[in-house]
Amino acid sequence: MTKETARQNAKKLVAKMTVEEKISQLLYNSPAIERLGIEEYNWWNESSHGIHGAGTATVFPHAIAMASSFDTELVGKVADAVSTEGRAKYNKHTEYGDHDIFKGISFWAPNINIFRDPRWGRGQETFGEDPFLTAQLGISYINGIQGNGEFLKAAACSKHFAVHSGPEKTRHGFNAVVDRHDLFETYLPAFEKTVKSGVSGVMGAYNRLNGEPCCAHSYLIEELLRKQWGFDGYVVSDCGALRDIYKFHKFVETRAQAAAVALKSSCDLNCGDTYDALVDAYEQDLIDEEEITAAAENLFTIRYRLGEFEETRPYSDIGYDKLDCKEHKFLNLKTAEQSIVLLKNENNFLPLDKNTDKKIAVIGPNALSFTVLEGNYNGYASEYIPVADGVRRVFKNARVTVEKGCNYCDEALNHWSGFQNLISDGAAAASEADITILALGLDRSVEGEDTGFDNDYTASGDKRSLFLPETQMKLAQAVCDECENVIVVLLCGSSIDVGEKVRNHAKAIIQAWYPGSLGGLAIANILSGEANPCAKLPVTIYKGDHDIPDFEDYAMKGRTYRYIEGDALYPFGFGLSYTSYKYCNAKLVSADSEKITVCTEVENAGSVAGKEIVQVYAAYTDSRAETPYWQLCSFKAVLLETGEKKEVTLDIDRYWIKAVTAQGERVEPDGKIKLFIGGHQPDAVSTKLLGYPCIEIEI
After folding, report:
1. Could you say which of 291, 317, 343 is where a domain stops?
2. Does some domain include residue 567?
């Protein structure tokens, strides 16, 4: 069904409704209207990295992990599998008349906010700190969710519009102050690109932007989203955000006024209950029926496109056996393997011999954790393989011992009796091991969405420090004192520094993120060489004492690889492999006003097959605008057998190499444009760590 047909059908249906019935359909838990053949529908479902919350589903690696793959095709396959499972659930839920929360096929994902500050607890839900990478992966995820059939397979939603990335503790009343340069260069491009690629929905953010609540923002939604970008889908508030308009932002005084100002700004759907007050707003002449009708038509256009009103609903042949099925488990494992970043590998310590009979100790709070595999916005898999179990499965001849060693961040295990920690147990296990795997990091109880939990390390889900929590630092240092051969496996959703002593002592360091239900097996496959690490960092990993700007400062100065002050510990775009790659013969193929095309030869010069992420960065100057050091503008994942050489062609959209003025306008740079091609960004730290510079081309 075309958009045009769906909209015409929606108009005809909505025209038969009373004002009260129309208003009832603007709430996320939309009731049935039996006289019109409309079933109850709950809009609220999540699919960040799998179907959320309602029974069994494949738990894929979290979004930040998938971003490390730098692989649009892979991300699209994951999203397609997610929407398949969503349809499988929806088919059965509908059959049983179950229209509860998390039972529909309108997914409030992906989160395409920019991970601008490494302390933000929800950064794990994003595709990282770069606007271009976020846009490209966001588009792939949306296309995978929505499909390319006559009807939407499911409806994706870009969130949170806009300029939303902490702090969690004050998000319901916080005002993000951003100038137009940073707004249009950093915070808005991924929204613009996903909107223009056909996303069905856009979710507003909790915060204010320059004084105006995002879910009732006249410029953001009415002018920019609807008029300039031509968005014809639906806009939904974040959950409870319309209540914030009067309760915390104090933008208006009453619920009716809050409901009215949001509706008049073209927010169609309320996740929450404030739109109950639209009846009062209508009776007080704060809104008119045409505005109510327009919102209802937007929503029913989506429901028609999903095929709800078809005699035989589309995708009804997708069976319940698709949930966490063998095929999806295979994709899950491969995605996890391709999301793990190798940060250090001293003297090629890895891979380990999978037939070794040595003593291996797996120590740390993430050694046997299931929650660390899940991340947040997670479903519930039918099978979990934590780190220790993955090691046991792969290293079958090894003598594996396991110790927790400590909690995530609270050192006291029992405040009543004085039982403080298990660090000595961890040290004891390490002292008798030939190799120790330190499974460190966080989980969603420490970093996450508005947890309400505060201590010395976390504030409602946001980190206070870029170091590991102190109790884990003590454990790691004690283990390093007892065992020569230490491998650090970090499982978390953000930048964490294990400290200089542990960094220097460790033979290898792996960033494994929140790797999905089979993450422990993926990690073990990387450790054994069963899989060759190929992922790259989608964020900057900072030194723990890096002087980053104030968390509440939304200016980009000093933030991310594009404007960092000082050196990164491990830079954006960096990642090691068990093989090596050589670049040569990079050249400009063509250039016009819309697109630049370059090509380069890439050779696998090592002893194992691998996947290289070819990256292109643009550095440009302009007398009228501040510009980043350089900007990622193209990338491509390339499979190479040992000794194989390929010519790789990469296209660059001119949009991404335009300077953004103080007024927010994109202009062709009046200075030089240089392109840098290689397996990393052209900074000094990456060049030193990987041992070769990028190839430079001047346009």
Report:
1. 317
2. no
